[in-house]
Amino acid sequence: MNHSLTQAFWTLLRRDLLLTYRNRAQAINPLLFFVLVIVLFPFGVGPDATLLKAMAPGVIWVAALLSALLSLESIFRSDFDDGFLEQLVLSPHSLSALVLAKVFAHWMISGFPLLVVAPLLGVFLGMQGESIEVLVITLLIGTPVLSLIGAIGVALTVGLRQGGVILALLVFPLYIPVLIFATNAVQMAESGFSVTAQLSILAALFLLSLALAPLPAAAALKMSLS
């Protein structure tokens, strides 16, 4: 990126983070949802420590996926409502780069906090040692993929008044590979097996999403505003 585009990228990122700081509920709600789902889960299945430990990776990752989905519309919705999104589309800078800045801001708001609380919740469900380390690694690699893929769905539905259901239908099938490989990696670590293959696939999904997602998201925004 050239100097002016780099400056625009960081300015937009700072703007979104500042707006979130002023409206803290936007960041707290997805995190609170993530914590509540996991904390309430043992009350539903019982206190069997072995069962909770076996189900912990899937529970944590499903909660992370639903938490990401809960906050997806915040990537573009407020900007669409106040007209700022039209200014981004008309900007002389690369729209895909600006989209990437907004996705990065969304991940810092909704994805990064999960990395902080996930180890504690993993211990709460009976996870130990290397499995918790692998859990954090999968969240570090996988949650940005959720934001990147989700940005495409939000861009396609941002002009719809009731786009939440359609958004879920669009992104859920694309989230499944991340869920499968991330959960399997933690389960394999818990059993003492190598997780190199699973983490490599997650890394490949992240790189593909990082390279490809901003372009269709930018195109979808232009179509939604046309």
Q: Mind explaining what this structure looks like?
A:
- The chain has 226 residues and is mainly α.
- Helices cover 85% and strands 0% of the residues.
- The radius of gyration is 18 Å and the shape is elongated.
- The two termini are 27 Å apart.
- 40% of the residues are buried.
Strand and helix map with partners:
Blueprint lengths: L2 H20 L2 H21 L3 H23 L5 H6 L1 H7 L4 H30 L4 H29 L6 H28 L4 H17 L1 H12 L1
Helix pairs in contact: 1-6, 2-3, 2-6, 3-6, 3-7, 3-8, 6-7, 6-10, 7-8, 7-9, 7-10, 8-9
Helix tally?
A: 10
Coarse shape: elongated
Strand content: under 5%
Can you give the helix content as a percent range? over 70%
Number of strands: 0
End-to-end span in angstroms? Answer: 27 Å
Radius of gyration: 18 Å
User: What is the residue-mean pLDDT, rounded to a whole number?
Assistant: 90
The computed structural class is mainly alpha
Low-confidence residue ranges = none
The major sheet is characterized as: none
Multimerization status? single chain
Order of helices and strands: HHHHHHHHHH
Question: How would you briefly describe this protein structure?
Answer:
With 226 residues, the protein is mainly alpha-helical. The chain has helices at residues 3-22, 25-45, 49-71, 77-82, 84-90, 95-124, 129-157, 164-191, 196-212, 214-225.
